[in-house]
């Protein structure tokens, strides 16, 4: 689906924009995401004076809280920030309200409409509303329907709905959810969130590629031999076993975050910088991606599950021993995979992606390895000659480095790799905002550039659905190999690259 660039926000991400008066309504306000990410992000926007004075947050959930209780609960995880900015917090919380709402009960939704009108009166929010569905995915469809039935999504200029991931469980369910949601609102009102797109360093891939002339001419199959995309975590499943058991790493990380990083790394340059032009290019590249071996996916995909590990002073449980996890669970906490992109730019270049929990180090990065020099004129000081590498560090230690060979000092002519380094911290002196700061602001501005469009989300599910089906129908073909906690995943994932005479980068 190619969508023409008709959006009035043609300036896209170019300049600071002003959020209009509005009320952000959070469904699932008593949940984890609200107090861990959403309220801190809104407070950050407030401190940076990027929220209008006519602004309110209405928290909604089933719990019978009131405004005061909601304000108290939201302040708990922010204790340190509040200590540093007590005056700002005092002002900020006067904008927080709470209404007990069960989206499945039409009476509650009518009550919600009345409360919103009241907030419009008190806070002058002009019936301009962003509805954030931070609820269990099984309520997305009915949540949207309830809002439509209550007339709350009627005005496309004044109402938007933000939907958290996972958007669907596979290709068919994502298609059907898209149909339902698009019956309730225009695509321009729907903001499917992927918080990786809110990360400064992911957006920087676009700037690095398209604001410089030196990269684009070599950003293709003629110069690049392979690309590795990694998102490694040290944490385990934490207290999310209920969700994770039915999701696993493939649905939790690969279909969304890793695929979006791949799309931004591999997309064609858009004709101009507007939301649809960018999303058109991302959608095309995801549609052109395919598993390296579609007929025998077990040859290009490895699943793993962490077992116990750690040290004697800090022993770590295996996944199956975690609270809420089935002791015989085969849910994967690690995935490594080889993909190709079937287009002129990338034909034949393998993309290796991997993600896992309880790995040796927390790191997300994109590594482009360039082809070797055609003739090796010099002996390599460290043994084998190396290839140039561009490493885009998404997190932590945000930045980029470029590896290239120089002459090793001394009388001979031996080559040795060195690194050229860019660090966000050193260059800009301040840490970047959390992804949610950017994304909440963009949703309230109505700028969809950093949100996933319906065709992108469907293409991403279509890419992995054969694997998901195989895992369900014949799990023995894609077993979960155990790996010790705080290591780099199962040895089978190393073999995946060894078959191509390659190694995973150990960041
Ligand atoms: C979430 C996943 O989307 O991303 C989590 O559901 C994961 O399982 C998290 O831990 C990782 O995000 P980040 O920003 O810490 O890399």
SSE map:
Blueprint: E1 22-27, H1 32-47, E2 55-61, H2 67-75, H3 79-84, H4 86-93, E3 96-100, H5 106-123, E4 129-133, H6 140-149, E5 159-163, H7 171-184, E6 190-192, H8 200-210, E7 224-232, H9 241-244, H10 248-266, H11 275-288, E8 289-291, E9 301-310, E10 315-316, E11 334-341, E12 351-356, E13 363-370, E14 379-380, E15 389-395, E16 399-407, E17 414-423, H12 424-428, H13 435-445, H14 454-473, E18 480-485, H15 491-498
Parallel strand pairs: 1-2, 1-4, 2-3, 4-5, 5-6, 7-12, 9-18, 14-17
Antiparallel strand pairs: 7-13, 8-11, 9-10, 9-11, 11-12, 13-15, 15-16, 16-17
Helix pairs in contact: 1-13, 6-7, 7-14, 10-11, 10-14, 11-14
Bound molecules: 6-O-phosphono-beta-D-glucopyranose.
Structure description:
By secondary structure, the chain is α/β, with parallel strands linked by helices. The protein folds into 2 domains: 22-164, NAD(P)-binding Rossmann-like Domain (Rossmann fold, 3-Layer(aba) Sandwich), CATH 3.40.50; 197-367 and 450-498, Dihydrodipicolinate Reductase, domain 2. 34% of the residues lie in helices and 22% in strands. The strands form 2 sheets. Strands 7, 8, 9, 10, 11, 12, 13, 14, 15, 16, 17 and 18 form a 12-stranded mixed sheet that branches. A hairpin with a 3-residue loop joins β15 (389-395) and β16. It is globular, with a radius of gyration of 24 Å. The structure holds 6-O-phosphono-beta-D-glucopyranose.
